[in-house]
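Anyone able to model this chain together with zinc ion?
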Amino acid sequence: MRRLLVLVLVLLLFAVLPGCPSFGLPPEMPSDFLVGMRSKEAKDPPVDFLIKVERSGRATWQTTVRAPERKVYSGELELTESQLVALYQATLDADYDSLSDEYAAEPGDSDRAENGNRVFWVEAAQGERRINVDYVNLPAIQVLHDALKSLIPEYALTGRGGPAEAFDATDRFVADRTTKRFHHPNCEHVSEIKADNRETFKDWADALNFRFDPCPVCKPMEVN
Ligand SMILES: [Zn+2]
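re: yes, here you go
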């Protein structure tokens, strides 16, 4: 009788478990989101991160190590649920308000950033898919920075070793000074840009740094 009771309890447990709500993923997490960041640390070269994360846990990342020579790396990841939640939570927890009030400055102030722990440009769109942060060793977004770094192989952060992709020196993004947007070279809007208003960038971080926004049609920052 007792054995039967245990068996019934075990069967009940298995019947209920698959229907249990998942602990981890917050319902408001979008189906995918991008985190872009330019960072510089004392011991490492300056690095641009871009990671695109899907709710399923699939992630594609790209880094550009900017010095002493420019190297581009990319890869794919499967995030565990706890990694996914940690990264998403870090994007929400970063103290963007204190950054914009206290640290945001004009792009021309980049010298200051090179010389001290100051942000020289911050843009954050909480609740949207894109978060771009430019910073140098800044506590307010350190958790986000650490969450990103923990996912990406060391060679892609330091530029030492690993399978770097040949960097294509041709300009990969075309910007329009009048609309303040930048595009993939093959976007339909590129032909509308007058020669005088045209500007080109080698990577998305440079375009963002000069306060151009990615075109919503060609989505030039998407990692593919
Ligand atoms: Zn475009």
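The first helix runs from residue 2 to 16.
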